[in-house]
Every structure is written in structure tokens, then in C-alpha cells.
Amino acid sequence: MSNANSPIIDLRTADEYISGHLVHATNIPLAEIDQCWHELPPKQTPLDLCVNQNDLQQAEQLFSSQHYPINNIFIAQQLDQSQLQQGTESRRLWLANPLLEQHIDRIKTHTRTKQPIAFDIGCGSGRDSVFLAIHGFQVKAIDNNHLALQRLTHFAKRWSVEVDQIALDCEADPDTLADLIKKHSPQLIIQSRYLHRPLLDIYREHLPSGSMIAVHTFFKEAAKFGKPRNPTFLLERNELAEKFHDWIILLDEVYSLNDGRPLSLFLAKNP
Question: What is the pTM of this model?
Fold first, then answer.
């Protein structure tokens, strides 16, 4: 049997999972897996699977095609009921960006209300958005990729949270973004692995006193190791601190990926 640290993906339906599942398992129904690969650990991570007998071959082929080695496969019909627990609890295997994962308590300390509004700019499939919603934020997830927003709809539903999705190209229509900031007065704007410098000016001009920006994106040294290489999308060291020199800098650190690419962990508050 797997230990508590081994990711176990239970590929049965939600009802089957609730009726009895292995401890520390994560439920992602096989019929939904194509929309949920972003909820799994990085590729090449060894996994355990729990499946119905009839789904065994399909599951093996799918996970092999996605480059996940399989340690063990548990056939649900062969499990001893004494090994199982009931309930909806499902282990979270996906991660938000490191700024949120490591510093969410610090961020929440500086919010003024129990359900603060947060904007996730360039939200993509929405791991940061869902993470913030799990932690009590009212999230406005903003992106111009309609397919990503569709995945986010499914993602938020699976984690039983509400995320307000806004289809907007912030670069092409910055005035609409400014209007949204003025309308909703977000207490937090998060921008992860995305840089468009004119947006920083919008935040400076329109975010109310007490609001924060959190920026997690690549420094120019990342080009030595891989993408992105275009300097338009890469930060200079101390660039954010200089840009927000008159704000309260709550965090200004460097985070390095395993491949050596450095990213910012920057959090600043409008005084």
C-alpha cells in the first residue's frame, strides 16, 4: 500500500470516491482527466492509480502518454473495505506560485476585510485564482485566453469555490482594466510569470491605499538557462523596488527554479 507521501490518483467517479477511497487519495474522474492535467504534480513524478477494473487499460495508456511513471495500480473492486475511508476530502497535489504558497499568511495579515477582492492578471488555467479562493478571497480571474478560462470554470467547480472570470486583453485594453480596479478596489493584484510594464503604472495610479501587488516573474538572468529570452518579458534586479519605492515593500526576494531560472517574490503595499 502507498504511504502518505505517495500521490494516489483515484480515477473513479466522485460518487464512487465518496463512498470509499484510499487515505490521502486525490479524486480526478477518468472522464475529466483531459481537463485536469494541471492539477497533477510535475511530469515524471511517480504516481499510484486507483481505477475500476474496466478502466485499467485506458488509464495506463493515458498516464504513459503524459509521461507519468506508475508505481502501483489499485483495482477498486479488489480493495478491502477496511482500507478505505468515506467522505469528499481530496488531497491537493497542484501548487500555486511560490509567492502565494509560501507567503499567503503574510498577505492575509495585510488585508482589511474577511473576504478581500483579488485580481489575478493573466490567470491562465487558474491555480493561483483557485488557491486564493480557497483562502477566502473574492477572485477576479482575468485573461484573454478563452480556453484557459473554460478550464478554470471546471477547476473552480471541482474545488467548490467561486471565481469570477473576466475575458480581457489587458495590454490591448488597459482602460478597461483601470475601470475594473476603480470599480472593485481590489486589496490584492497578483501577476505570475507575466510581465507587461505599462500595467505596473496602472496599479500605481489606480490601486487604493492599503492595496497590494504581488509579482512573481522572471529576471533577465533566466535567459541564460532557457525561456523566456525576450528582455521585454524579463525584470531587471531591483526594478520593482525602484518602481514602487514609495510603497511599503513587504517582500523582495529571489526564487530559483530547479533549472536555475530566477524569479521575483515581490510584495508591496500602497501606503
Answer: 0.89
